[in-house]
């Protein structure tokens, strides 16, 4: 009997020792806090399971993401208080064993759709004290085993129901919740599911003012909020009621003044254009009336070059053939005189001779 008891105790001791040794072998901790690192070190032990890179200057850029993919055995990753602004797609895609991810106290304002792809075993996600304004619930789809979601201390005003089937605890306080009809689905999910809202008493509505004393889980909603179509109108109505009258009037005055300035600026440009067009047209008309030099200049080119079959002009300026006036049938001498005088009035005659620029004077001198 004594031998049997001793054997049993020995076997139990060996099992406990084997479990402890196995745990010591699988758990490898690396602490790089407050090292002022901008990049994740590449010389970390490949078997690391718990990696703490908090209080550094890491940004999770492309280089850091590639380095992070090397540590496939990670079960816990801490990136508290770094310089992370964006969670890019596939940032943790190779960390299929990760169970705890803590990225609190950064400046995250964008989480891309596929940021959490590959985190099939993740149980705790901490995104507290960032600058998140809006979250697409579809980003949580890959997190099928998530138990705890921490969104405390962000800038979230509304939040659609996430697709988290195993979630047990959610932290939402410290956000400026707008308790309009858009938040009705979230409240209904919090009350009907098994999830627990931590710090429910301090997870309060920020607006409208009449609901600031209510928790987002207990705020009373009107029956209109149950309708999908009326929820939009209710949301807009609550939003405008939350704005003070002075702020609204000030904005309205600014809009009116800006519109008046804009219309005045456009009309001024139009009037200037019309005035310039009228002045230019008037100036051209005045020049054409008061300065007829251009008309006389054009008249001097009314003649044409003599054709080869036409007879040469004589020295007295008249052709051998009869004048064109003589070709006019049935014209008397008086009519011919009037026509000649009218033609002569348009000619500029200083010395009694008509100068034809097309006649070569050198040839005339040789002929003479």
From TrEMBL:
Q: Which residues form the LRRCT domain?
A: 175-226
Record's keyword annotation contains rRNA-binding: no
GO molecular function annotation? signaling receptor activity
Tell me where the signal peptide lies: 1-23
TM segment ranges = 268-289
Q: Which domain of life is it from?
A: Eukaryota
> Looking at the keywords, is RNA-binding present?
no
InterPro entries referenced in this protein's UniProt entry, alphabetically = Cys-rich_flank_reg_C (IPR000483), Leu-rich_rpt (IPR001611), Leu-rich_rpt_typical-subtyp (IPR003591), LRR_dom_sf (IPR032675)
Family matches, as SUPFAM superfamilies? L domain-like
Q: Name one Pfam family in it.
A: LRR19-TM
Q: What does this protein do?
A: Pathogen-recognition receptor which mediates the activation of TRAF2- and TRAF6 NF-kappa-B signaling pathways and induces the expression of pro-inflammatory cytokines. In kidney, prevents infection by uropathogenic bacteria by inducing the production of cytokines, chemokines and antimicrobial substances. In gut, involved in host-microbiota interactions, plays a critical role in promoting the recruitment of immune cells and intestinal inflammation.
Protein name listed in UniProt: Leucine-rich repeat-containing protein 19
The protein's organism comes out as Orycteropus afer afer
Tell me what gene encodes this.
LRRC19
